[in-house]
Write a structure and sequence with these properties.
Length: 297
């Protein structure tokens, strides 16, 4: 059974002075804490055991917000990242939690939404080896970039290249088999002094165990690491929610729709928030019967 890793560490220096007093992943993206969005992505994949990696300072705040996950029918554990030393470090920190299980690693400031996203996630969950995603962007220099050969197979992956070989960026969501921790331990610090996730992925590429799934135009990927990106994401989420009257990345709704909690449990959660429009929305879900096509949270 695949387990989830949600990386919510770091110091959020690109967002100073906002993040001098509050963790980036606890900032609001419209009507929900940022961390709800990657959490729901893991839940939609079918993952029910999740490790949140955060700083010691932020640990009490995350525990207060997310608790142990049982209210949503999942299990959440925590571990501390004393110093951010690259994304691959998350796999090393998560090794005791994974205990030999395959994993899905998602960054706490990455938001995914779109048509057939849940189907795409669950397909990746069933793949062997490692699975990454490709997303066409206008500014690939800011990301890990995937280069394809003439047969549309991965030729190379380069972290933040000055001269990108394609416009396909690698979003912060990665599926790995049970070799990931072993591969992460082989990685040496880069010129930036970090354990790069690209160096883990390249080991899968070299052994022909790497799959790439291209996210099409119907899928939105938002990396909310800067003030402008947070503002854009908030406007995007607000526009869709107001237009449709449906919420995006609402963990109570995901849990209820996936059968992780029942109507009675949803009612209890809704009543705890009943003075807000969020709580009222949860109550409205009880008598709704959505077709399968609408299950894109």
């Amino acid at each position: 059974m695949r387990k989830g890793i949600l990386l919510a560490g770091g110091s959020g220096t690109r967002l100073y002075p906002i993040t001098q007093v509050v963790c980036k992943q606890l900032l609001p993206i419209y009507d929900k804490p940022m961390i709800y969005y990657p959490l729901c992505t893991l839940m939609q994949t079918g993952i029910t055991e999740i490790l949140v990696i955060c700083t010691e300072t932020d640990l009490p705040l995350f525990k207060s917000l997310l608790k142990n996950g049982h209210q949503w029918g999942i299990k959440i554990e925590y571990t501390i990242q004393a110093k951010p030393e690259g994304l691959a470090q998350a796999l090393i920190l998560a090794e005791p939690f994974l205990n030999g299980s395959p994993s899905a690693l998602i960054l706490g400031d990455n938001l995914f939404y779109g048509h057939q996203l849940q189907t795409t996630l669950q397909a990746a969950n069933n793949m062997t080896g490692a699975t990454i995603f490709g997303y066409h962007v206008a500014d690939p220099q800011a990301y890990g970039v995937i280069e394809f050969d003439q047969h549309k197979r991965v030729k190379s992956i380069t972290e933040k290249p000055t001269t990108p070989k394609s416009n396909f960026a690698m979003p912060g969501l990665y599926f790995f088999d049970n070799k990931a921790c072993q591969y992460a331990k082989k990685v040496s610090p880069s010129a930036r002094g970090e354990l790069e996730i690209v160096d883990v992925i390249i080991q899968y590429l070299n052994t022909e165990q790497l799959n790439v799934n291209i996210l099409g135009r119907g899928t939105a990927w938002l990396d909310t690491g800067t003030p402008d990106a947070i503002a854009d994401a908030t406007q995007y989420i607000a526009a869709i929610e107001k237009r449709q009257g449906l919420k995006i990345s609402c963990p109570e709704e995901v849990a209820f729709s996936m059968g992780l909690i029942d109507q009675h449990q949803l009612t209890i959660l809704a009543n705890q928030l009943i003075k807000s429009s969020y709580g009222q929305y949860l109550l409205s879900l009880i008598n709704k019967n959505f077709p399968d096509e609408m299950h894109q949270y």
